[in-house]
Amino acid sequence: MQVPAPFEYERATSVDHAVALLERLGPEARIIAGGHSLLPMMKLRLATPEHLVDINDLADLDYIREEAGEVRIGALTRHRDVLASDVLGRHLPIFADAERVVADPIVRNRGSVGGSLCQADPAEDLSAVCAAVRASVVIRGSGGERVVAMDDFQHGPYETAVGDAEMLTEIRIPLRDGAGSAYEKVERRAGDWAIAAAGAAVWVEGGTMVDAGIALAALGPTTFRASRAEDALRGQAPSEELFQHAAQMAAEDCSPSADQRGPVDYKRHLASELTVRALRRATARALHQEV
C-alpha cells in the first residue's frame, strides 16, 4: 500500500486565514481542495509537504459570474459546476467541451478549477482552455492581489507563478463580441490524460477573424500557445485552407516527446488535426452556425 509521508493538517476558515497559515507554516505547506492531483503525488512520495491547508470551507471562492465585462470563476469552483454553467455555456462553450473529457464524474464532482491550474501538468485540459481564451488569474498573498496572464502563469512542468505564501483565488476571462471557442482531445480511454489536445478561440467581425487564440496540451513541457498560427489567422476570412495552414504551423512549433502514448510524428499529426477541428467548431460557433 502506498501512503504519504507524515504531514500536519490545518483547515482554513477564510482566504485571509489560508494566506496567514501559508505564511506561518512556510514553503513546505500546500493548499488542498479536491486533492485529486496532490494526493496521488503524495502517495508516490513525489510530493512531500509537511503541512496541508484545507480550503474546502471557503465558499466565497466557489462561483461563476459575469462582472465588469468578464466571466469570473472562483478557484474552488468544482468541475461539475463549470460543465453545468449557463454563463460559460453561453459565452465560452470551450469550457464545457473540455469538462466533458476531464477524468470521470467522481473527479469532476470534487476536483476544483484552481487545483487543476495550479497542478500545471503539461497534459491538463483547463490550462489550454484558459490560454486559448486569453484568461488571467488572480493570486492572493499577504501583500494583496496581483493579476497574472495565463501566458505567464506556468513557469515549467508543475511550476506556476503562485509563490510559497500565496494562493490562486480567481480566473478571469474577457468577454468580446463575435467570439467562438472549442476544444478537441484524443485520449487512450475516456477520462485519461490527453495524448494531444487543442483549444481554439476566434473573434469574428464582418466576416474577418480579428483575433484568435490556439493552445495545445500534452505537446510540450507546458501548455503551448501557438502564436505563429494565431498571427496567420488575424485579418483573414475563415476558410478550410486557412485553418489547415495555421494548424500545420501549430504542429511544427510545438514540442512533443515520444512516450508510451505515441511517437513524435504521430503527436504532431494529432496537433494539426485537432487544431483544424477546434478552429472549425470555434468559427462555426462565432458565426452562430453551431449551437
Q: How large, in whole angstroms, is the Cα Rg?
A: 19 Å
Shape, per Cα inertia axes:
globular
Major β-sheet profile: 5 strands, antiparallel
The CATH topology of the largest domain comes to Uridine Diphospho-n-acetylenolpyruvylglucosamine Reductase, domain 3
The CATH C-level name of the largest domain is Alpha Beta
Number of helices: 11
| Strand content range | 25-35%
Low-confidence stretches: none
**Average pLDDT for all residues:** 95
Series of H and E elements: EHEHEEEHHHHHHEEEEEEEEEHHH
At CATH level 2, the architecture of the largest domain is 2-Layer Sandwich
Query: What proportion of the residues is helical, as a percent range?
Result: 25-40%
Count of DSSP E strands? 14
**End-to-end span in angstroms?**
47 Å
Look at the helices and sheets and give the structural class. Answer: alpha+beta
Total discrete domains: 3
Biggest sheet strand order reads 4-5-10-6-7
Walk me through this protein's architecture.
- With 291 residues, this protein is α+β, with helices and mostly antiparallel strands.
- The protein contains 11 helices and 14 strands.
- The strands form 4 sheets. A 5-stranded antiparallel sheet has the order 4-5-10-6-7. A 4-stranded antiparallel sheet has the order 11-12-13-14.
- α9 runs antiparallel to α10 and α10 packs antiparallel against α11.
- The protein is globular.
- The N and C termini lie far apart (47 Å).
